[in-house]
Specification:
By secondary structure, the protein is mostly helical. The chain is built from 25 helices and 12 strands. Helix content is 50%, strand content 9%. Helix 7 (154-162) packs across helix 10 (234-245), helix 17 (376-386) crosses helix 19 and helix 17 (376-386) packs across helix 23 (499-506). The radius of gyration is 29 Å and the shape is elongated.
């Protein structure tokens, strides 16, 4: 283990680089609280989206890396800011008009438009927990409402009251003149309406632990800052949470870089060290716009899992967190196949390479073997030419190609076959565009057909690829024009598989019949 720890301490994989920054905090002494605290934050003002999952997945990767280089215990808190005021009705939920009546209430007091939970935040929190649980994440869920009302934050809220002026000095220069005039780091929860009020603090009494503010009807009210009677503005709230809990690490999106800066200053003003942080790039939808839980754009967690196994989603999240990613349905096949490529490579790798392999950061030391003898992209091509409506049709081809494979012995492949059929029918089939071959392409396709008809060699990927390559090499320069013709004429797509492998899987006789249909114009007509 010591040798592996040395390798981990030198690894350039980004989770280990992050973990080393956390470890550096405790070079002189271990944490007084007895553990290193990782945190992820979530605002339940809308349905949980894939970005929230990504944050938990990536933070878990850093936590796992930390546990390899240190014996200090760790904890991960998934914190829901569910006491925040409900400022805007999300566009992707029912009961739009009714929800407008709940504006400015704490999110836990907003009605659940789905009718399944006590409130909107409770519904969204449950959705998030169910999803994280399904991935087997180890975490502790934390509710801002519970923490405020139970007194968990009382001590630090009193410190914030004492250092009110310092917090204001940090925040006011970041605001416009109009907001400066009314800004207070404390948001009273009105005893009259239950609303989370954005009003100035008129007086504060440090000895009593209270503030005075004015209700919208003009009445002056004095309330304690403890016990859930106030909620802090979100940047001071973030800082207060870090300070109160002793958070050591929390990552956030690039759009929150300024917020991290201000919250870190406030955390120091409260007398505590801010956490280590990573600013990751944002996910964009198919139009290049940032995904948003209020818009409901982009790809949801449930949608990804409709077409691929969860490990492929974690693989996608691992890749280059500081690089912006387009997150839409068409990234799924590539992520699935790359994940399995890394699985196949892992077993034979040296320790250094294993710790740099994404699958280690997904599975830890329990990396499974891949039994995907047919790539996902190839399954999609197979679904295309066979017009598959269910995975059983695909298995007829798979078992001829790999006789040892069965749904029972290769469950990953069986699951992927089902996903491929679903993905083909929903996304590939509507976009298929076959074309007729040009005269040179027609002559080449006829030559390939005749070569396959006369072929009596091994029906392996490599052997059949040699036949395809020989036909193209005599007729096309560059060769990619030949493969483009094969894909566009025979598969109705601009890209495709290594064609020898496709023939081996689909079958020589079946490929001959496919070429005959293309030459007769039947694929275009269909």
């Amino acid at each position: 283990m010591t040798d592996l720890r040395d390798v981990a301490l030198a690894s350039k994989a980004w989770p280990f680089e992050e973990a080393r920054r956390v470890l550096k905090r405790y070079q002189k002494a271990p944490p007084e609280k007895g553990f290193v605290l990782f945190q992820t934050g979530y605002g339940p003002s809308g349905l949980p989206h894939i970005g929230t999952f990504g944050e938990v997945a990536r933070t878990t990767m850093v936590r796992r890396a930390f546990e390899m280089i240190s014996d200090i215990p760790t904890k991960l808190i998934c914190f829901s800011d569910d006491m925040d005021g409900f400022r805007k009705v999300p566009g992707n939920v029912p009961m739009q008009e009714e929800l407008k009546e709940d504006l400015n209430l704490p999110l836990t007091q907003v009605r659940d438009p789905f009718g399944t939970h006590e409130g909107f935040a409770q519904h969204n929190n449950a959705m998030l927990c169910d999803f994280l649980d399904s991935f087997g994440f180890e975490y502790e869920f934390a509710s801002a409402t519970d923490y405020y009302k139970s007194g968990r934050f009382d001590e630090m809220l009193l410190v914030a009251l004492e250092r009110f002026d310092k917090i204001q000095e940090i925040m006011l220069p970041t605001l416009g003149a109009e907001r400066q005039a009314t800004y207070s780091c404390f948001l009273p929860v009105s005893p009259k309406t239950g609303h989370v009020l954005q009003v100035p603090t008129l007086e504060r009494n440090v000895a009593k632990g209270t503030i005075v503010y004015e209700e919208p009807d003009g009445e002056r009210v004095e309330i304690p800052v403890t016990g859930g009677h106030v909620k802090m503005q979100w940047k001071p709230d973030w800082a207060m949470r870090w300070a109160a809990l002793g958070v050591d690490y929390e990552m956030s999106g690039k759009d929150l870089i300024d917020s991290v800066t201000q919250s870190s200053k406030i955390c120091r003003a409260l007398g505590k060290q801010p956490p280590e942080s990573l600013s990751y790039e944002l996910f964009n939808d198919e139009l290049g716009q940032k995904i948003s839980k209020s818009k409901g754009n982009g790809l949801s967690m449930e949608e990804w899992l409709t077409y691929a196994a969860p490990e492929s989603l974690q693989y996608f999240m691992y890749q280059k967190p500081k690089t912006a990613k387009r997150l839409y349905f068409d990234v799924i096949p590539k992520a699935v196949d790359e994940y399995h490529q890394q699985l196949r490579a892992y077993a034979g790798q040296e320790p250094k390479a294993k710790l740099n392999n994404p699958v280690f950061h997904i599975h830890g030391h329990n990396v499974p073997a891949s039994n995907m003898v047919v790539p996902f992209a190839m399954l999609l091509n197979l679904a295309t030419v066979s017009a598959a409506e269910d995975k059983d049709r695909l298995w007829g081809f798979i078992q001829r190609y790999a006789p040892e494979a069965t749904p029972e012995t290769h469950p990953d492949l069986d699951q992927a076959a089902g996903f491929a059929v679903r993905y083909f029918n929903d996304f590939v089939k509507p976009t298929l565009t076959y074309r007729l071959p040009t005269d040179p392409e027609r002559e080449a396709l006829q030559a390939l057909r005749d070569a396959l008809a006369a072929y009596d060699g091994e029906r392996t990927d490599e052997a059949l690829q040699s036949v395809v390559y020989a036909i193209g090499r005599e007729r096309f320069d560059p060769m990619r024009a030949w493969f483009s013709a094969l894909y566009e004429v025979l598969l109705g797509a601009s890209q495709g598989p290594r064609f020898g492998g496709f023939i081996a899987l689909y079958g020589v006789e079946e490929t001959i019949a496919l070429i005959d249909k293309a030459l007769a114009g039947e694929l275009v007509a269909a």
